[in-house]
Structure formats: C-alpha cells, structure tokens
Amino acid sequence: MGKSCQKYAKLVSESLDRPLNLVEKIKLRIHLWMCAYCSGFLRNAQKLRSFLQEDQEVSPPLPPQKQQELKKLVQKNIEEGTDSNPPPDE
Ligand SMILES: [Zn+2]
After folding, report:
1. DSSP assignment, residue 1?
2. Per-domain residue ranges for the chain?
3. Is 10's pLDDT higher than 70?
4. Is 74 in contact with 27 (CB distance < 8 Å)?
5. C-alpha 47 – ligand 1 centre gap (Å)
6. Which of 34, 39, 44, 74 sits CB 3.0–4.6 Å from 30 for a disulfide?
7. What's the sign of the alpha-carbon dihedral 82, 2, 4, 32?
C-alpha cells in the first residue's frame, strides 16, 4: 500500500457519500489502474454500496490519448505528494 493510497482510499469511501468532482474522479480512476490495493478496496466499497443503494452508472472510459495525458499528470502529482522521501540534493 503506497502513501498516496490513504488519500485514494479516503476518496473511494467519500465517493459513497457524495459525487466526486471530475478531477477527483479522474485521479482516482488513474490510480485504480495502477494500484491493485485500491481497486480491490473500491470493489469492496462498491459491493457495500450496492447493498445500500442502487448502483450508480460508471462514467465512460476516456480516449487513450487523454488517458496518457492524465496518467502523466497524476503520476507527477503522486510523485510530488510523496513528501516523506525528498529528492536528493545535487
Ligand atoms: Zn492505491
């Protein structure tokens, strides 16, 4: 479980209570592609939600080009977010 996972796990649970905004959705989606832990967590959360309420429609996938752009963007974001490991001074 990576450091950013805590953030995304929280976002997953929040998504059960409120609609995520577009940026949150995209970041979460991209993280889920890369992270087995969080995608597992989301599956469980969705199971739980479908108990509580009817399934929400999942937003359609982005075109591949846009996915690449966003992936880079979010990866950058995640790297910058790992502040426990500052880059070495050069
Ligand atoms: Zn994760």
Report:
1. -
2. 3-79
3. yes
4. yes
5. 18
6. 74
7. positive
pTM for the structure as a whole: 0.48
Q: State the distance from the centre of ligand 1 to the C-alpha of 8, rounded, in angstroms.
A: 6
DSSP of 4-73: HHHHHHHHHHHHTTSPPPHHHHHHHHHHHHH-HHHHHHHHHHHHHHHHHSPPPPPPPPPPHHHHHHHHHH
Q: How far is the CA of 55 from the centre of ligand 1 (A)?
A: 22
Chain segment 24-70, per-residue pLDDT in tens: 999 998 998 899 988 888 888 878 777 666 545 555 666 777 777 77
Distance CA 2, CA 82 (A): 9
Q: What is the pLDDT of residue 24?
A: 93
59 Cα–ligand 1 center, Å: 20
